[in-house]
Amino acid sequence: MKDWPDMTEKLTLGWEEWASLPRLGLPAIKAKIDTGARTSSLHAFAVEPFGSPDRPRVRFGLHPIPNRPEVEIYCSARVIDRREITSSNGEAEMRYIIETPVNIGGREWPIEISLTNRESMQYRMLIGRHALMKDDAVEPRRSFIQGELSYDVYKPQASKPEVQRSLRIAILTREPENYSTQRLIEAATARDHVVELIDTRRCYMNINAFSPEVYYDGRPLPRFDAVIPRIGASLTSYGMAVVRQFEALGTYCVNTSTSIGNSRDKLLAHQLLAKHGIGMPTTAFASSPKDSDNLIELVGQTPIIIKLLESTQGRGVVLAETKKAAQSVIGAFRNLNANFLVQEFVKEAEGVDIRCLVVDGKVVASMRREAQTGDFRSNLHRGGTARSVRITKEERDAAIRAAKILGLEVAGVDLLRSNSGPKVLEVNSSPGLQGIESVSNKDIADLIIQHIERRAHPIVRRRTGRRAAAD
């Protein structure tokens, strides 16, 4: 908590002043100075308490610009009290009370603020007498003595680095006890955020143009600042739909529905990477059973890899040692109506691959994974072993470019070291953290939360019935 200095310098205020609330992410707001009111108040809608009973928080939205409802700011703050406040018209209302610094004319000090809907009022903020210092003076016939700000600070091109605020973060997962899930919770909690686990299967959606919602167990979910999708392969299609719905609400999603789809569809992922010149094992795909032999010839001599498009953690990946074995596996997959790829087997990799963890366009950690004896799959879930590894600049660039091409902000990129340079094997949109954190001794979960803090922007611009002037 900041130690606030004694404010000995007298401040002279007009009956209206421009103010900023830096910890709420409000760089400019017009406030009415009202010494007749005891408590200061701030416009707030969609007020939602969250957090634990011993550390209660509140999240709320506000429209800082009168008559511009399409510009919304979402804030969060620690709750210090809840009181019954009587307004100037005599109506009593229970309000959440927060404490946050206010800055007027360059002087900054903490004040208590009650949250209430001031949509129908000219001023989105009222500063009461308890917020003023003993020697401050108010000149009721003057305005903006302390200088003027501008609402232009809310334009997209004027956006500034995010303020430190408590975020309400959702993790979409069916595995609440999973190591990666628990580590993300620990990292977020350590940075004063609140995490809620959402089972993707139990979400359902109200899809409309004016008030889209995500429902969960019979109630609409609250507004989240950020969503971390950790969607299992078996739930990809529905999980992407849920993520799309959060995107429609203006929620920041660590990986978008489109980027998840790009990575989960292995054929599409290979096509996108090939289009941008990313090195990969030679890969072939066909629908007709008559093309089986041609597929094998396209990728070269056996052994070859045959991989289901929906394979994960090494399951659904088969090494065919001979042409006859390859024909047999392809025939079995076709009989199951399963979509699959046929891929070159990079012999010189010798059952070893490199996992690069990419966060926000940077490789933050890497590890060398080696298959157990008698297996060619290096996945840790298949019994493979891992150790830290120093990657080359070429490998680093390949991993960063692969994640960017697929649109992933957090990704696990698997590379093979071949005689012709690194080859991207796969890009994972929900990479596990246990193996790479243990071998790299890096707090990857914390780096992901820091990334969310930078990207979870509080300003949301929505369209109203007519074209929004902010556009």
From TrEMBL:
Alphabetically ordered keywords of this record: ATP-binding, Ligase, Magnesium, Manganese, Metal-binding, Nucleotide-binding, Protein biosynthesis
Gene Ontology cellular component annotations, sorted alphabetically: cytoplasm
Entries under PROSITE patterns matching the protein: ATP_GRASP
GO terms, molecular function: ATP binding; metal ion binding; ribosomal S6-glutamic acid ligase activity
Essential cofactor(s): Mg(2+); Mn(2+)
Database matches in Pfam families: RimK, Rimk_N, Zn_protease
Taxonomic superkingdom: Bacteria
Example GO BP: translation
ATP-grasp domain residues: 270-453
Keyword Transport assigned: no
Annotated SUPFAM superfamilies: Acid proteases (SSF50630), Glutathione synthetase ATP-binding domain-like (SSF56059)
InterPro entries on file: Asp_endopeptidase, ATP-grasp, ATP-grasp_RimK-type, ATP_grasp_subdomain_1, Peptidase_aspartic_dom_sf, Rimk_N, Rp_bS6_RimK/Lys_biosynth_LsyX
Recorded family membership: In the C-terminal section; belongs to the RimK family.
Protein name, entry field: Probable alpha-L-glutamate ligase
